Amino acid sequence: MRVLTNLPQRDLRLVSESARASEAAGYDGVATQENKHEPFMALAVAAVATEKLQLATSVAIAFPRSPMVTASTAWDLQLASRGRFVLGIGPQVRAHNEKRFSVPWTAPVPRLREYIKAMVSDHSEDDQAFLHEENGAKDPTLKNAVSQAEPIIADHLRMAKDLDKSLKGKGGSSSM
């Protein structure tokens, strides 16, 4: 079992101290939610303030962001945290998508399927590029950086593929 706690999101000046206190108290990780505030900024602050805590979005709303924007943000958090970031995404309900985020509503499962397929494709391309560079790099600094990053990309690819498999055969209702 892992024990997580929430980070303050209303005031980023409170995040460093809260994250360090959570780490000192023995929590396994901290999480944010996309409620009143976006979920990534507080995690970026916590990433550079801590060494061991897992950093997670318990939910980041998928549809207002393109898969590439989400992947780019996740990659930046992964780098800042040295591999401790976990992305949790979800569709949210129709009213939130339409009224809060001004996103047209369609059935969530097919959209999530498209979203995950894009992440699988992008991670596959990135993993191949990193493996190619790892095997051919002459510069030892570059080779070391690539060697450290490639397992993270491969792990993300595995997670994206697992998520893609879990969505196979699932339908989708447009009335959520």
Helices and strands in order:
Layout: E1 4-6, H1 15-24, E2 29-33, H2 40-49, E3 54-61, H3 67-81, E4 85-86, E5 89-90, H4 94-100, H5 108-136, H6 140-167
Parallel strand pairs: 1-2, 2-3, 3-4, 3-5
Helix pairs in contact: 1-2, 2-3, 5-6
Query: What are the secondary-structure elements, in order, as H or E?
Result: EHEHEHEEHHH
End-to-end distance, in Å? Answer: 31 Å
* CATH top level class name of the largest domain: Alpha Beta
CATH topology of the largest domain: Rossmann fold
Largest sheet data: 5 strands, parallel
Which percent bin holds the helix content? 55-70%
> What's the average pLDDT?
89
**Residues in β-strands, percent:** 5-15%
Low-confidence stretches: 172-176
Shape: globular
The total domain count is 2
Which structural class should the secondary elements be placed in? alpha/beta
| Total helical elements | 6
Number of DSSP E strands: 5
Radius of gyration: 18 Å
